[in-house]
Amino acid sequence: MIRSREEQRPLYDGTKRTNERLEVLRLKYVLLLISDLDVPHEELNVLHLIYNQQAMRHEYEVLWLPMVRSTSSMSLPTTAQDTIFYDLRNNNMPWYSVDHPSLIEPVAERYIREFWKFDHMPMVVVLDPQGRASNLDALPMMWIWGSNAFPFTKIREKALWADVDWTIELLADSIDPRIPEWTRENRVICLYGGEDIEWIRKFTIAARKVATALQIPLEMLYVGKRNPRAKVQHCHEVIDREKLSHVFSVKEYYDYVWYFWIRLWSMWNSKKQLGMTVDNDLIMQEIMDILTYDSSEQGWAVFSRGNHEMTKGMGETVVSVLDNYQYWGHKVDHPDKFVPVLDEAIRGTHPEHHCNKLILPSYTGYIPERVVCSECGKIMDKYVMYRCCND
């Protein structure tokens, strides 16, 4: 796969900034990070977080293999291509990289493209200590479970799913260190999204008013929208400036918003590949509901307390229930009862008119035959949509 003479050191250690022989990877699990030279910065940043989880345990090594033949990067002059490569290798790759793309055998790159189906999108292939490919698409497992997914096999994937329920821990525990802290303190956690800043103002003010009246320890965190654009950035800045709720770090908000949504899509695809469907799997149903909320023009919110109580609802329905808390607030005589009572109130509210939609990217690979509306429970109509959106 990598061209190397006996005296050569074809690997570059991004942490030590030294060249190494191929022997440093012998009899180890190796994760091949395969990409072209156009690597999304948010993917790299989140991979850094995951890699650092295991760096002290030395469970596996990561090796970056840049694919530069037969790609758009080949249209660049060699000097420009080398500049991009060395900038990525030296400043963004703390793991091993090939010292130069030319060291990758042409036959190996053809094999990766033809048999491993690499085509622009970054992928991670897992090699076991005997050098056998044990997983051709480990990124979804990494997004969901981080280094806890090691050794990234289907057996490990099934075991991880068998051990979890639909909880705030699964939904967002790894996204922000404040969430597990709030869970330990038994606080009510609210994750909410959308890009309508007026709805966000109404919702956060109403939620804080109810929390104060009922003496509920409430923490709210804005998670934006899938494919965040300028509107989401504007909302993030307004929420932070007006102190409407918690937000992700302003400097890194895009990475965390992207991470939240890519984890949801990864859960969807992981379940699908294991044979689950929205008809027979509760977690897929819950994920589909949130994806439906995000596909709409409205905001949405999920409330949780502890690791088992959760409720959720769309835009105006949630605001209406919160605004009318005097009709149900008397049932909340202890913070433990807030989420179940709120769930009952939301479920008992059905808008006279609604138009929900679920947008599935073409690369998901799995299009369910039937999708139940999260608002009324009826089967949704199926359409094909082409979309181009500019802010």
From TrEMBL:
Any one GO biological process: phloem development
Signal peptide: none
The Sieve element occlusion C-terminal domain, residue ranges: 156-390
Highest taxon of source: Eukaryota
Matches recorded under PANTHER family: PROTEIN SIEVE ELEMENT OCCLUSION B-LIKE
Name this polypeptide is given: Sieve element occlusion C-terminal domain-containing protein
Record organism: Plantago major (Common plantain)
